[in-house]
Amino acid sequence: MHGITLYSNPQSRGRMVHWMLEELQVSYETVWIRYGEEMKGEGYRVINPMGKVPALMHGDLLITECPAICAYLADRFPRPRLAPPVDDPRRAAYLRWFFFASGPLEQAITARKLGWDVPAERARMVGFGSFDDTMDTLELAMLGGPWLCGDHFTAADLYLSSQLGWAMAEGIVPERPGFADYVAAAFSRPAAIRANEFNDQHLSAA
Fold first, then answer.
1. What is the per-residue pLDDT for 174?
2. On the chain, which terminus has fewer CB atoms closer than 10 Å, C or N?
3. pLDDT of residue 206
4. Thinking of the domain 4-81, which architecture would CATH place it in?
């Protein structure tokens, strides 16, 4: 297996993958892809036919979709223990909240941001049900912390805190017990700070 190349944009979900790579402390290369013609062009669509970032090449392996990339890296590089082993009982909570964050939570945030109103009688047709139900469930994830798997930070925390922090900053998700403290603790990790500084520097230079 050879090196890691991340295709990203400093204003994208690729920031999560940068954070993940910094947590792992592995060597990687970043290829910055501009929105518009470059991201939707034939050259980059060979990497990701969706014409979206992030995408990750690990040797000759290609992974797209931000949660899939983070989950892959957590399992592929187990030393930092960003994913509980398969036979660890904490794996259940890890998978539960990781998939919740990348499914119902992201859907609910996107719907609220874009003003998509789901009629109550149609709520059972959408994965998140209702925005309030999603927020109530998210509060449950904060119980027994400080992290989703107790006292150990995982890739699920990285992904969920990224989604939640952005949504709170945008005014989409209101403050609830534990939300702000959870996000602040995650964002204060040295790897998160390094990743944000790296992206912000490139954004300023672009």
1. 94
2. N
3. 60
4. 3-Layer(aba) Sandwich (3.40)
